[in-house]
TrEMBL record:
InterPro entries: DUF5131 (IPR011101). It comes from viral metagenome. Pfam families: DUF5131 (PF07505). This is DUF5131 family protein.
Amino acid sequence: MAKSLSKSKVEWWQGGRVCNPITGCLRRCDYCWAWDMALRFPERYLANDNLIRFGPSEAETGWGKDPFAPRWWPEQLDAVRRLRKPSRIWMCNTADAFGPWVPSLMLQEMLQVARDCPQHTFLWLTKYPGRLREFNPWPSNCLVGATVTDFQTFLASCFELEKVDAVTRFLSLEPLLGWPDNQRYAKAIQRADAIGTASALHQGGISWVITGPCNGRLAKKYPCKAEWLNSIAAACDIAKVPVFEKKECRRLVTRRELRKEFPKGEGDDMATDG
């Protein structure tokens, strides 16, 4: 792992940096791009024997030979401390830092860097939002979010984020694998559904939503519908929450312009490094 911070190529974090003091994940979602990358370039990860221990011993699991086993790279935190220019830094984009296998002390060490570097903006994203409140209150320079793949995880994440004391809470609905399909119903029912979704956004204190379909080799396995994206955008309008639709949405949404909105106060700073 490089001792410097690389630039992100993700559209909504374009120009921002990524910091990976943790790599790997035990969740193993089949659409995970980071898992694919670890399998393509295993030598990058296997060079580090600083495994994050969880559950059975390494001898039983063979983690040492698994490039996507959770690993600790503290030198990445040193790179953040050396960075003087105010920057936007995505923490652990090749891992889920809040997975139950990650010790709280490691997370506290990462959060301390955010506290010690107020000139930077840090982004955190997880599929385990129930753990986020463990670290309340969050530093004001942190954007704290949950990855959502369907309506059930959307509701659960809004419920959990309501308990998180952070200035900016957001949702990444990507890859979007499922959503209530109400297009065959009357407009009044569609409107009622949108209001219900907007209510959940409001309850969770959500100030930004990102949407996008499954992309790449599993796009056919997990097809997304334009109706889902339109329904989410309508709910965001009701809740007055900005929505960013990734460029991959263009193949689905053809009758309107894609939304490229950012949280209040971020604006162009989210599109270029500060």
